[in-house]
Amino acid sequence: MKERDEIDTCIVNYLSGEASQSEIRSLKEWINASEDNRKYFEAMEAVFYAVPETEQSFDADSGWLSVQGSFGKEEKKVVRLTNWKMWSAASVVLTLGLWLWFSHRATPEMRWATTNQMLQQQLPNGVDLFLREYAQLSYMEDEQKVAVELKGEAYFDVKSKGDKDFFVTTDAVVIKDIGTAFGVRNVESEDSIYFNVDDGVIVCYANQNDSLRLSKGQCGYYCRSQKSFGLRTPQRNETAYATKVLEYDNATLERVMLDVQNVYKVAVVFQDPNMAQCTISVHFNQQSIEEIMDVVAMTMNWKVEFNGKEWVFSGAHCQQPS
To answer: Contact, 199 vs 128, CB < 8 A?
Structure first.
């Protein structure tokens, strides 16, 4: 009973009435071993008994049926439970358990906070972090998992995360990574928390019984006021601040340069304000700011210069090369 995943599985079995006598004995020994253990179990139990019993079916690939790491398996099946609390208990073990884990640790191992500049940082577990302006991130790790707590907006590129599960907690939501590159936006002034997946899969959990699975190219949100998840239409260039991938199809130069200024932290000026309404179709993939300016100038048959303070475009209004 020393491993946390064994504890979590045992709690799920016990609360749903499926535990063996040996599991019950082991669980009671673990509960009596420390005050933190007792509080952890009581929190699970309190939420479990607050959930009404109903019959429910769901996709096991989308639900947290097993806290032992069943995500990522190819096999799919639909499971019918005659007691909704089994699913509830498993979900709560994940979400509330992570929050308790954070609160019971004395201090996070590492913290980062940004002001008016984005931070690019590789986390100790190998995950590349892009922390946007005015955001905060706390990092914690134990023998089995890594969890970060986010306030604000960030992008996580999980090329490598070692052999430990990687979780992001942000207010009411816990996100489990399954080999991904994904963005999270949690701004206090907005009613929703936003998610977008550029690669791989993430699963988001909230409350006792709500979850959302997102695959490559999908975007979702969690509405605080409604306490529910939903899907949303992907927005182009939403994570360009981290990926530096910018795509445009007949977009105005005003739109393009607003994004460029935001991503590259530069100032851009049109000698003739009407030039900003000219349109362009172009794709940038991690080009330097100099390359971007040259491509735009060449495409529009303009000139561009950097005067030490800002990039200045000059030329005829919407003159395209022949």
So the answer is: no
